[in-house]
Amino acid sequence: MSNFPPGFLWGASTAPHQIEGNNVNSDWWAQEQAVPGMDPSGDAIDSYHRYEEDMTLLADAGLNAYRFGIEWARIEPLPGQFSNAELAHYRRMIDTALGLGITPVVTLNHFTTPRWFAEEGGWLGEDAIERFRSYSAKASTILGDVPWVVTLNEPNMLAMMVTMRHMMTDGAEVEEDWQSPTVDQDPRPQLPPPDPKVGARLVEAHHAAREILKIHTNAKVGWTVANRAFVARPGAEQKKLELEYIWEDLYLKASAGDDFVGVQSYSSQWVGEAGIEPHPPSPENTLVGTAYRPDAIGIALRHTAEVTGGIPILITENGIATGDDARRIAYTAEALRSVSEAMHDGVDVRGYLHWSLLDNYEWGHWEPTFGLISVDRETFVRTPKPSLAWLGSVARSGAFAAVAR
């Protein structure tokens, strides 16, 4: 039996572009229409209109926290022109969460940006930092009583995506069909490492937003980092350190001065002397090709605590892409056991937010299912899975027993 302290946050996470639908002014929407082999998001799962239903399902299950994003492309459709209607929409979402007894964890940017921002050069554009600062200031007008705010989601993955786009712009060979950055299936091409110069720009953006939010809100402010939970083969310890800096530590170190850091982990990867080892195909792999490694979250927590010196941690994403919900429960139980063990050893973890509340659009394709709730994409009918009730029972009791895999 593993136990968690009173006040621990239990919930689930989503991203606006993946669930809202018709985010037509964003750079991702434009990309979906232009790139061969990339599925369009379209209506997504219509959470823009059905957020109250989604939050009610979460609350009724016994969960007490919901991480959701606000969409920059909707709030600022043109440079310097802000939509009061969209700000009011997202404020209604916050009020709905609070009214249901749910702690809102609000993300300012989850990969997508306004199309005009991308056309200005995106995160490497001359005015990028000031643009994000201005958006953050306007967003802060609806965030005054939100207890947790995330500035940027997974800046290390975002830096990798920016690196990929610039490689294509510079004439590198482009795949004929879309390859989602969330798929890790050998023998697909290796993802390029995030350029530290892009990372440095995102650090600057994060600090600019943090400064604004600390002035105008009472929120705990931080950002989330994708943890790859690297494990070194014998003799590859130095290579692991090099890769950790490029992929994670640059961003974890930039959390100095934050109120918390979000840890996001799904699987682990071996590092050999030549670098990251692609994970071979296996019946045990998840629907995105990653290894079944529920222990990865414990590795990620310990590494994050070591690098940051003990900044409070909120697990903002952890889950598994699978069509077998019994496997989802087993994975989550093993992951929570790793979390409990890390906390017992002194790692300061404040909550666990599962990815994802809903089966949704997975950045270019629809096949992987991460959700605690399934959704019919034609009717938008929501059907809770057994894993939602299971996680809710853990939240209510603050403890769970072993679950057979």
Task: Provide a compact summary of the structure.
By secondary structure, the protein is α/β, with parallel strands linked by helices. Helices cover about 40% and strands about 15% of the residues. Helix 7 runs parallel beside helix 9, helix 8 crosses helix 9 and helix 11 runs parallel beside helix 12.
Plain-language structure description:
It is a single chain. It is globular and about 55 Å long. The chain has about 400 residues and is of the alpha/beta class. Residues about 170-175 have low confidence and may be disordered. The chain has one domain: Glycosidases (TIM Barrel). Strand 12 (about 315), helix 12 (about 325-345) and strand 13 (about 350-355) form a beta-alpha-beta unit. The chain has 13 helices and 16 strands.
Amino- and carboxy-terminal Cα gap: 16 Å
According to CATH, what is the class?
Alpha Beta
Which runs of at least 5 residues are low in confidence (pLDDT < 50)?
171-176
In one word, what is the shape? Answer: globular
Question: Tally of extended strands?
Answer: 16
SSE succession? EEHHHEHHEHHEHHEEEHEEEHEHEEEHE
How many whole angstroms does the radius of gyration measure? 20 Å
CATH superfamily placement: Glycosidases
Q: How much helicity do the residues have? A: 40-55%
User: How many separate structural domains?
Assistant: 1
Structural class: alpha/beta
The biggest beta sheet is recorded as: 9 strands, parallel
Largest sheet: spatial strand order: 6-5-4-3-2-13-12-9-7
- Number of DSSP helical runs: 13
CATH level 3 topology? TIM Barrel
Overall pLDDT level: 94
Proportion of residues in extended strands: 15-25%
